[in-house]
Amino acid sequence: MGTKQQETLTYEGRPYAKQDEELVDQGLQFDIGTLMSRRGVLFAGGAVAAVGLAACTTSTDPASETTTGGTDAAADLTEIPEETAGPYPGDGSNGVDVLEESGIVRSDIRSSFGDSTTTAEGVPMTLELTIYDMANGNAAFEGVAVYAWHCTNNGEYSMYSEGLENENFLRGVQVADSNGVVTFTSIFPGCYSGRWPHIHFEVYPDEASITDSANAIATSQVALPQETCDLVYAEEGYEDSVGNLAQITLESDNVFSDDSGASQLAAASGDVSSGFVITLPVGVDTSTEAGGGGAAPSGGGGGGGEAPGGSEMPSGEPPSNNG
């Protein structure tokens, strides 16, 4: 009879290094080999899982694809509310028209241009608006022209307030870049009686359209965050703003009170020495009718029939209006 062949002992397909010993006594080299084998399986499994996950998150449904130029930040975007341009627009809808003047297209709006070079004083501020085309899948609205304007550190408006009729600082136009972004270098506006601190803006289809305010496809306002206002208004030149801000809230403001400025409240970063960066995404839907512009609703708080700075209100303005 032939000799019976001894059975070879294995673990996970690997022969024991010591056939006459228990598994736990196979030695360091065998244990290391087992560990490396397991790591290889885990790595392969992880790679397969990653491929599977990618397959699950990649859709061939065109409706789920992101439109070129859109961003994840714009996924929950809502249309910017249409608001009054206020009594001091300077766009020709209420008297003077800065949009007809050569030099209005500029990024730095701190100084007047033309016959005056006076510079407005205050804490530095950069305003950055990102305009989205909601009628085109929230794509970046490249090429639109944005006209922005706001009051001085003590609440006055160039072209309207007493002594500033010949100034046009804190007003300017920028054309949105390929990302839909416009950027303005300015100073942080003050708070005047009856209004929450804000910045006005109008969006036009292109630069050529700005000479007629009726061409605006959106008119709205940026609400400034209170924490930043508190920091700025503690600085010299903003003394009146402290008391004025204490008398108003977003909920009581005649423009932002509808929803406390939910889609108009800007984000802010920076400090008083180097300045603040104010940012806001702006959804513009050209499939809806632009209903802003013109005068603020009558009965707005605290205007008393005078523009900031004590000058008479421009003709045609309701006497209790605060822009």
UniProtKB/TrEMBL annotation:
Q: Where are the transmembrane segments?
A: none
Instruction: Output the Gene3D superfamilies linked to this UniProt entry.
Output: Aromatic compound dioxygenase
Here the segments flagged for biased composition (Gly residues) are 290-308
UniProtKB keywords: Dioxygenase, Oxidoreductase
Molecular function terms from GO = dioxygenase activity
PANTHER family per the record? INTRADIOL RING-CLEAVAGE DIOXYGENASES DOMAIN-CONTAINING PROTEIN-RELATED, PTHR34315
Presence of keyword Oxidoreductase: yes
Specify the protein name.
Answer: Intradiol ring-cleavage dioxygenase
Biased composition range(s): Low complexity: 309-323
